[in-house]
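Handout, tutorial session.
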Amino acid sequence: MSAVAATPRSRHRLGDGVAYWLILPLLALEGLFLAYPILSGIASSFVNPDSGGYDFSNFSTMLADPDFWAIMIRTLVFVLLVDVAVLLTGLGVALLMNRQFRGRGVVRGLLTIPWAVPEVPVAITFIFMIDPTFGVFNLLARMLPGVTENPQWTLDPTLAMAIVVTVTVWKGFPFYSLVLLAALQAVPEELYEAARLDGASAWRQFRHVTLPGIRPSIALLAVLAFIYSMQQFTLIWLITGGGPVDATLTLAPAIYMQAFRFYNFEYAAAMAVVGLLFSVLATLAFISVQRRLALDER
């Protein structure tokens, strides 16, 4: 018999080869719809709109533009507010959902509604809610001491920023809540029992048992929240349009305006590269934190 039976090692190599072939279509789609647009955008950012050649003129113009730095400061303020608020809200809701109560499954299902609803209907709904004439937010505002008139939500810079932050957090917190809920349920119950036997209070249990157990998830979600808020466009654009007086004009709407209102595509590409760099830096910071946490656990 001339045929030789395949050894386990050869079968293992054959399986690896099939796996690589099966993943090729996914890699091709990623390259076509993700990698190519990114590389094309980076290349466009170096195109001089006057000469058509490649140089750093767009970046030098951008770095010398005070409006660009105002946009970046506004973006970082928006990102910081959203990042902190969505993580705190997600953690608080996850802690509540981790408790035993009747109808918990139904509440968990309802919790996903804000995340499932598209951003355009969310923006339209909140536009009606903040309408200065009949919006329900006016009723809540007039309950506060000293407020006797309906606030002009989108005409006041501070209120406009507060509204877009609130809507962004409301839209995104279910995802962070569910991830943190899964992390909370993965913390061994034996650790809580040992802490209670040692006389630890609820706060000490949270600080020394819960937080260390979910710390990797919080670090990951912080990066995802950073990227989520950095690229937020639809809610800001539909609710405030970047106003009033550019008070809510963050990086993503500014890129859109440069590209499709002023037709300055090369300058818009340069601004997009800056946003990409910030996202990459946030990802590298997450990797560094993860490595440090892994070393601490050892």
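The second record follows below. Compare its token runs with those of the first.
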Amino acid sequence: MTMLKRIFSPALLTLAMFGGAAQAALVPPQGYYEGIEKLKTSDGNFRCESAPKPYTGPLQFRSKYEGSDKARATLNVNSEKAFRKSTEDITTLEKGVSKMVGQYMRDGRPAQLDCALTWLGTWARADALLSTDYNHTGKSMRKWALGSMSGSWLRLKFSNSQPLAAHQAEAELIEKWFARLAEQTVRDWSDLPLEKINNHSYWAAWSVMATAVATDRRDLFDWAVKEYKIGANQVDDQGFLPNEVKRKQRALAYHNYALPPLAMIASFAQVNGVDLRAENNFALQRLGEGVLAGARDPIHFKERAGEKQDLTDLKVDSKYSWLEPWCALYHCVGDTLQRKQHMQPFNSFRLGGDMTRVYDPSAESKK
């Protein structure tokens, strides 16, 4: 920021803000421009399954922590089963689109792209997931689904292979639906009191950021950046998020879960000229380092949260998908870099698929 003040006079800064810079199209990080690996003309053994039924009903779902105390950390097996059943079609859409887009970017089979577009188009035409009758779990499902779909869509939209060039009408329909979902997500998650802002708000902001770039919406981009800053400024000097510490035995797991959306937002903001790395004295870096240290030895999380930590999620490599954008932001070295390389490739459908191909495409050839 100091350098910007030195370089720009007030007049030039005004021109930059309201001239060409303000009108520049939003873009994703460079890895999203990667083309299809192997363009194949035949569809091989790929078979397009019928699209899951569009979910158009009230977004009223049971929480898997139903009946838990205010820490919301004790799993209710029966309510989780009910939750999985009632949201099955939504999750099938998320995972299915992510998988098909990933397959298409590797194999280039036309049927893979056609199927993904059919699934998304079916839900878009039905105005799915737009109900304003929702509870907390319902609005959470909306933003998770939007982040998954927009994250996958970015790989199609910006690929140098231009797979959407022959599907412009369908792409426009789908993107308009994404935009409506993002607008509702902004309404769902705006103006919350600070004690209510946690990982859910960060995931909402990621879904809006991905959609902002997919639809070139600066207003959505600005909202996501604003929410990121709120999140970053929640990180204390020791690298803890107080509202995730409240999760008691799952405090470390939820700190880890808060990192993917924050790292992705910062990565997308940076490539669009907004450098968030130093926000709140490098809060995102401090948060990541704290989680990595906690994964090695959770003693500090145990002391802060007051309970022994549940490390189940910390043993799943894909839960560290945030390392790809995070290491691109902060240039990991030493033990952190080795850990990232050991766990690659990272695939997270909630972030849109294969993060290693986006941020570290040479990783596979090194193995």
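Points raised in discussion: The first helix runs from residue 2 to 7.
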